[in-house]
Amino acid sequence: MITVESLIKNRQLHADQAPRVTELWAEIRHWKRERNAFVPAHNYQVPEVQAIADYIGDSFELAVKARDFKSDVVVFCGVRFMAEGCYTLAPETPVYLPSLDALCSLAEVDEDEVAERQEFLRSLGRNFSTMTYVNTYASVKALSDACCTSSNAATIAAKLGVPDLLFVPDQNLAYQVALKTRRMYLPPPDPHAFHPKDYWERIEPLLREGERQGLVGNVFAWEGACHVHHQMTEQDILALRAQDPETQIVVHSEVLPALQRLADAVLSTSQMIKYVEAHPAQKKFAILTECGLVVRMELEHPEKQFYKTCRLCQYMKATDLEKVLSTLRDLPEEKRITVPESVRIGAERAMRRMIELGS
Ligand code: 13P
Ligand code: SF4
Hints:
Radius of gyration: 21 Å
CATH class of the largest domain: Alpha Beta
Largest sheet: 5 strands, parallel
Number of helices: 17
Number of strands: 14
Distance between the termini: 28 Å
Bound molecules: 1,3-dihydroxyacetonephosphate, iron/sulfur cluster
Helix content: 40-55%
């Protein structure tokens, strides 16, 4: 359990801020009861926000909860695509996002560009499905056959029943899917610079190589990346290995392929938590993902040592207790997240398919 004492001890809180945090927790709990509200939080949220959450999870667990919860209002402590996904699955309940700055660098994908790429693959006669990472907005989800998260992308890919996949938008998770499902990874074009002829000239030799190796098909990777994970380097891992060969190195599937190959495990955020729990004898870990998860592990496992190789996501840190309180209390219209019904229906279909195939 997160307490002000544990936060102070772990240097997450200054002692002089403790009275205000205690006050905010009490007020938020009061307004949660008053509103009959459900407050989910992502694993990367700051610990004082996680302390007042009704449920904490990775993107997939949060999507499943969004389908199943029963309450009158949702205040979503995560980023916008997560709140939008919650509304997509439960449009009868108002969903609020405490900070409108809580965006995601992966989610900024132009749906017209996705439609153009689909048309290109059709013109080549490819037998493909479009898989979309949940880190996208509804207009892109609506163009997909199924959504996925980092915890289930390969499982869903294996069940779609087609050889080729257009994987949008994370190029590094696309690599993980290709590796686990025996497909050829086709690297993306440069962002906003898709030229069919140049692209085809680059990927054609790889396609032929995949055929020669008897692979299942191909993963056409989109040109997206998470700015937090994409900046992690092989050197981060090599330096750790040299410094302390005993350390278990766990990376998120949004890191570059070279890092995925060097790591001991490639996982989603909740899978990382379970991985640490499943290795009680292992005392030292390096968790290459957003720092919020590492803070949580330090609080839950004071007996273990975690190397600070993580990076901060400013979007995940945009939510604080003051904003959660004012959102719950005032339910400001500008923080209410909705999706036009014509788009929501397609996005819901792709999200439900993810839950059906990925559970
Ligand atoms: P998870 O689904 O692993 O929680 O990842 C979400 C995310 O935003 C990773 O950066
Ligand atoms: Fe998006 Fe990356 Fe932040 Fe996750 S860590 S919310 S993928 S920008």
